[in-house]
Target: Acetoin:2,6-dichlorophenolindophenol oxidoreductase subunit alpha
Amino acid sequence: MELDKVKLLSMWKTMNKIRQFETRISDLFMDQRIPGFIHLYLGEEAIAAGVCANLRDTDQIASTHRGHGHCIAKGGRLDLMMAELYGKSTGYCKGKGGSMHIADRALGILGADGIVGAGMPIATGAAFGMKYLKTDDVAVVFFGDGASNRGTFHESLNMASTWKLPVVFVNENNGMGLYTRQARHQNIINVSDRSAGYGIPGVTADGNNILEVYEVAKEAITRARQGFGPTLLEFKTWRQRGHFVGDPELYRTDEERKEWMARDPIPRFEKYLLDFGVSKEELDSIVNDVASELEAAVKFAEESPYPELSELTAGTYAK
Model:
């Protein structure tokens, strides 16, 4: 592991940004201050942070309905994200996209997507463009175990492997397709086994260990950048909340929760950093800085205006 203190603390900050953002919007949603639907990334922070720590601004990602963590890890601003969730005109999509459609082309965020599995052909297309233009950029797409049953998964892997496109498929396997356990919708234990059908590498790793995520992703991204084609990565993880805010979670047990909460990725990384020689004061200072940034983001969102009625169809139809 050749990670210096600066890189490690950058990943620590990213994980805490995601954790605090998600915790706060859950509270805001329950207070009826945020409209729409919210799908939280709590518990899966190590995947977004570890993967995106290997990416450049010119690399591109495609996300999911549970996409806030990906956007933050790729450099998304908390104030613009918060404003978007509030439906305000100052948001990333001018308040029209909401939680599931945040995008920023300048940062390489091609967009979160409310349609399961929709990001895979988008990222594959982006990777085709990168190869056509002869850049050494990489596309990364995040998706869940349920999405790996979609036709878009197989079509994208087939095309990407055939043309050796620079795309990395990142499966965030939290064991649940909405409310359905993986064992009930797949006759395999590891989603990465499906890579064999396309002649590409497939790797399963611990999605709650950011150091392991970083290393596995680094190898796949480097491979893609050097022109050797796609990799299918599977990170085993667990969402700490239900499928959506308000989900009663009748399909999970207390024993299961206790087991996975003991593997929370943030305390695990904190222990590593302390052993590495980082002081508790340094870590707490970063956590406090994130909290201040988040408070400013909420204030910005609440004080921003809603879109004017005249903006209803702006950006929807070509002029």
Q: What stands out?
A: The mean pLDDT is 94. Residues 5-304 form a domain with the Rossmann fold fold (CATH 3.40.50.970).
